[in-house]
Amino acid sequence: MVATDRTKLRRAKEKGHHDRASLLDVLRAGFLCHLGVVVDGQPMVVPTVYGVSDDEIYFHGSVASRSLTQDTQVCVTVTHVDGLIIARSVFEHSVRYRSAMIYGVPRVVTDPEEKVEKLRLLTEHVTPGQWDYARQPVRKELAATTLLALSLDEASAKISNGWPDDEDEDLELDVWAGVLPMTQQWGKPLPAPDLREGIPFPGHLNR
Amino acid sequence: MVATDRTKLRRAKEKGHHDRASLLDVLRAGFLCHLGVVVDGQPMVVPTVYGVSDDEIYFHGSVASRSLTQDTQVCVTVTHVDGLIIARSVFEHSVRYRSAMIYGVPRVVTDPEEKVEKLRLLTEHVTPGQWDYARQPVRKELAATTLLALSLDEASAKISNGWPDDEDEDLELDVWAGVLPMTQQWGKPLPAPDLREGIPFPGHLNR
Fold first, then answer.
1. ipTM of the complex
2. pTM of the model
3. Best label site of A154, B134, B138, B142, fewest CB within 10 Å?
4. Is A137–B90 a contact, with Cβ atoms under 8 angstroms apart?
5. pLDDT above 70: percentage of residues in chain B
6. Min Cα–Cα distance to chain B from A130, Å
7. Using CB atoms within 10 A of its CB, is residue A83 exposed (0-12), middle (13-18) or buried (19+)?
């Protein structure tokens, strides 16, 4: 993983991480990314699910079908909000977050065996256990799926997990300061309206 | 709000909404957006907080300082993940979400009075009650803040809140199907390490 002009962090340098482990920590903590592409010279940002291996991130090409043809530069950004940093001054309010940005030209995964393998990886990243439990894709479904792989070589992670950084004179104010933590929680599973009776909720979906 | 070539939804048309009320519902339900810009012909996607009025979205220009100079086209995307749609076939797995995409050229808010007003709006969107409670920005801080406003005129919202849509023959499988709901939750407030004793947690920060 290299720090290029793009991945060098211009602001808040102390928050930047260029090691692969920090990057993978951020990527493995979620399943939704924002995919940026340029269409007719204009930016377009689309949310989509992803999977990740030790050296690539995978996503469906169809989300940006009209733009992701070939040799298309993308920027994939993953952000987890961990809370709000509440300062004594409005100016110092900020966010606790972990984020990752990956730049590059994704390749289309065309080899049939690799495509199945990487689709399995993506499925297992988002819903561990489902690949072997649910019905796997048939040839027609595989053909209808465009799978893209993007190297993690040009990437960076940013982690903000600090406290309010107020001016010294503001510490004297009678104003509360701290962090409002935020987490994502899984709720009680909702069976589909057309689920047949007697089919148990599978344990591997318990989060 | 108009449906332009960009905001016309190419896929999943049934999920698209072009009315202002749907858009505002999505924007008011969160405070983090992903801002896409084009830098040297390449996409860059940066997470940042935003505020919203009835006809504009507001964010800090500094997040993309080297790219957001003037007349810069942006795409602002806001996504809330509401759950995973678990189908009987891997192919039909999907996500419950609400998202909004806004395109346009943001204007820099330069009028001092308007700048304060819109910063108040942004602050109150992210942390309601804090503008009047915390210390408000002084002249130097206002000068250090670039505030951008983007019209909601070219925008669309997408809402996916359905159920798995399996092939008829898959309904016979002994495979569970439904939705794993996901929500964001606020945790117990964490006082700053340097918070003076005797300063109560303000009720307006209770979520």
1. 0.92
2. 0.92
3. B138
4. yes
5. 89
6. 7
7. buried
